Amino acid sequence: MQTPIFGIAGDGAVDATDGSKKMQAFSADVGDRVLALVNSILKQNAITAKVDPDSLLVDVGLTSMDMVNLMLGVEAEFDFTIPQSEITPENFQSVQTLQRMIVSQLEPATAA
Length: 112
Hints:
- There is one protein chain.
- This protein has helices spanning 16-44, 57-60, 64-78, 95-111.
- By secondary structure, the chain is mainly alpha-helical.
- It has a single domain (16-106), classed as ACP-like (Non-ribosomal Peptide Synthetase Peptidyl Carrier Protein, Chain A), CATH 1.10.1200.
- The chain starts with 15 loop residues before the first helix and ends with a helix.
- Residues 1-14 have low confidence and may be disordered.
């Protein structure tokens, strides 16, 4: 059997581990970009706080207006409109919850 190239095994089958690694890398990139957006908003507000992926955004200092700015920032950063059904307090609790929502919304586009 040949060595897989670009995630395709020598027999024409797609190497599932390669797709999984790409999805993990994409998800990590999404998390980093969301974290950068949150830190940018905090900096604009002159708030210095350590933000971890599971930190509650309200606990680090984001107000309701900051959440609106974060939502708009996410839409601009990832070039998509967040569906109304996904604009929930649960999805905007932390970087981690935002990351999950974004990846689930963009997943079909990246799988192609």
